[in-house]
């Protein structure tokens, strides 16, 4: 007998400054009865911190998730899940980033206002928009440090997706225009020596998604639009491709689409598993392009916000490149969007209802479960 589910909205809100006390996320819309594995979440947090070319900051931080609500004995309760990641570096910024007016003399980092915005960062636009005299009030939140808690939320989404046989993984395709690991390292070393930075390209693949996630009904419901927004929402991402993306524009239709074969499966996957904004049962394939990071040790030209005088942009400890970190963050973002689409489609207050709706749907469309 078919199970009719009512869609549930999976939502997340995050907060936290790069050198503030902590990063937090509140996740609502999870079913009750989902088992979470603390090590799996911490493993993804650790993966995000790895990678050639990362800032010395990563030696200070050892990100670990704390759960302060919504979980009992490792099992979700169906109530909002609250995740916290402490910033260990905060102790060096305790005065400068104190949430309340600090006591005593100014000590540590972040005590002098930053008035020379970095081109490519949110510094200038943020200062103008919010009326900040100290661009630290912008850059602390605009920083990619915030992606740590998104990875934690993504790890929760991955746990839910695994229940319906969906696996999401990511890899680096290019760093600084180079396509092999040895060359990435050489390019990163050369950029570091020149006090410069690099960008790159990553790819995320989700296997096992059933046909029918997302919808063509409205532009905001299209899964490709949602994935593009999720990836563009990651710091320093400037381009997104779904499937063969831009290359499709240079081909004829006969070479651009995926013919339907036996059992409704495809021999090619140029569409990247999404047609009309809806998953078609093939792997979902997306790529994201990251610009070179905007904090250069050889600063770019800028202007002092206070004096109006030309100057050189802020030089702060930073990464030479963070493309491997982007892969992990993008994996989390894609998992999040797929989990959101799955919650809309299969609903259920308890995990068993969600799984029942998924199984009944696969039965209706006669689709084999990959999981
Ligand atoms: C970032 C600047 C650097 C990076 C940071 C992102 O911060 P800091 O100046 O403290 O070294 O290390 O990334 C992280 C801290 C992180 O955990 O990913 C930026 O400006 O975006």
Brief overview:
This protein is of the alpha+beta class. It has 10 helices and 14 strands. The two termini are 22 Å apart.
Low-confidence stretches: none
Major beta sheet, strand line-up: 1-2-6-3
How would you classify the helix and strand content by structural class?
Answer: alpha+beta
- Helix and strand succession? EEHHEEEEHHHEHEHEHEEEEEHH
> Quick one: overall form?
globular
Quote the distance from N terminus to C terminus. Answer: 22 Å
Strand-residue proportion: 15-25%
Number of separate helices:
10
Provide the helix percentage: 25-40%
Detail the topology: elements first, then pairings.
Blueprint lengths: L10 E5 L6 E7 L9 H12 L7 H4 L5 E4 L1 E2 L2 E2 L4 E6 L36 H8 L5 H7 L4 H17 L3 E9 L5 H13 L6 E8 L15 H10 L4 E6 L2 H4 L25 E2 L2 E2 L4 E7 L10 E3 L6 E3 L10 H24 L4 H15 L6
Antiparallel strand pairs: 1-2, 2-6, 3-6, 4-5, 7-8, 8-12, 9-12, 10-11, 13-14
Ligand EPS binds next to loops.
Report on this structure:
It is built from ten helices and 14 strands. The model has no long low-confidence stretch (mean pLDDT 95). The two termini are 22 Å apart. The longest helix has 24 residues, at 323-346. Helix content is 31%, strand content 18%. Helix 1 (38-49) packs across helix 5. It has helices at 38-49, 57-60, 123-130, 136-142, 147-163, 181-193, 223-232, 245-248, 323-346, 351-365; strands at residues 11-15, 22-28, 66-69, 71-72, 75-76, 81-86, 167-175, 200-207, 237-242, 274-275, 278-279, 284-290, 301-303, 310-312. The strands form five sheets. Strands 1-2-6-3 form a four-stranded antiparallel beta sheet, covered by helices on one side. A four-stranded antiparallel beta sheet has the order 7-8-12-9. A two-stranded antiparallel ribbon has the order 4-5. The chain is of the alpha+beta class and 371 residues long. Ligand EPS binds next to loops.
